[in-house]
Amino acid sequence: MTTTDLPASLIPTLPGQYYTDPTVFSLEQARVFEDMWFCAVRAQDLPTPGSFKKVQVGRESVLVVRSRDGQLRSFLNVCRHRGAQICTEDSGQTRRAFQCPYHAWTYDLEGKLIAAPNLTKMPDIDRVEYGLVPVHLREWLGYVWLCLAADPPSFEEDVVGAVVERLGGQDAIERYEIDSLSVGRRITYDVQANWKLIIENFMECYHCATIHPELTEVLPEFADGYAAQFFVGHGAEFGGEVQGFTVDGSEGFDKLPGVAEDQDRRYYAITVKPTVFINLVPDHVIVHRMFPVSADRTIVECDWLYSHEVVESGKDVSRSVELFHRVNEQDFAACERTQPAMSSRAYANGGVLVPSEHHIGAFHDWLKQRLAT
Q1: Are residues 297 and 263 part of one domain?
Q2: CA 148 to chain centre
Q3: C-alpha closest to that of 58 among 24, 78, 35, 75
């Protein structure tokens, strides 16, 4: 059966090779992860001058550091001398400078070359020109967003615009004051599946009644199988007897101060391409950041964000964490069950999307256009 033979209620998916072919993944690294704004680090993870984190963005290792003036900066994690990685640790604290462990070329926190063996005998070397290569950086919602492109796309259109399109206005997300929230819990998942399977799973709720019993107890409309995140401004309403967004529906914490009455007792889900999910509920925010490793492996870092008072007081956040942790485990297990079949001859031409999943077709069209440019 060809795609033109499909019944009107079905549309085709991507062919299986899009989820398994290293060549496709290499194109995605170049034309998606390295060309778009990539959400890399929670700014609070770099609290003081000299705090740094190493992040993989596409094929590049990127160093994010808080400089002596308090500003966040980012650089390719590559020594300008012979190309050794400056930092091999994933994160840490340095006092004043980064020193290459190979030949001791040394760079300050602003990326300038400040020392090297026999550097005084090379007076023609421009210490700024031979400094670390900078990477474009923006801060929004308390996160550091990086772009490796020489001429980055509009942050306002691609990142802020995705949120505005989903919620119907920028003020709707600003009420949650996400940049001022604190990480109450962070869980890292190593998912043996292609990043697109995770995106597609998040975009639809056709599976919710099948694998998310706890979630559909809290959000009964999810049992109907449509994706609330597809509708502009719509938030899925808590069940009548549900007191909070917790694993047992029990009471959570006080509503975040800026959250409006029409946002209370509602859950909003937002996809920011290529690799970010934002989940809003009245008393906390959940942010997923994906780091694609290979065609069949994706690291997902999930932050549960609460008011500073909740985190500093040591209040027990386990019931709200447990709800979405179970959702994550259920979703990722489903993606891992799907990944092996992507190389099956049964999926060589892809599968189909039912009506409540048709919006995933727009994601597929977007991806194919990115890879074709």
Answers
A1: yes
A2: 16
A3: 35
Residue 2 lies in a domain: no
Structure token pair of residue 307 = 């008011």
Q: Do 217 and 337 fall within a single domain? A: yes
Q: What amino acid occupies position 185?
A: R
Q: Is residue 235 situated within a structural domain? A: yes
Beta strands 106-108; 97-99: pairing state: antiparallel
Judge if the upstream peptide bond of residue 152 is cis by omega within 30 degrees of 0: no
- Report residue 260 as tokens: 């409006």
Q: How far apart are CA 143 and CA 138, in angstroms?
A: 8
Give the span between the Cα atoms of 90 and 98, in whole angstroms: 14
Per residue in 182-233, pLDDT (tens digit) is: 999 999 999 999 999 999 999 999 999 999 999 999 999 999 887 655 678 8
pLDDT in tens, 160-185: 999 999 999 999 999 999 999 999 99
The verdict on pTM exceeding 0.90 is yes
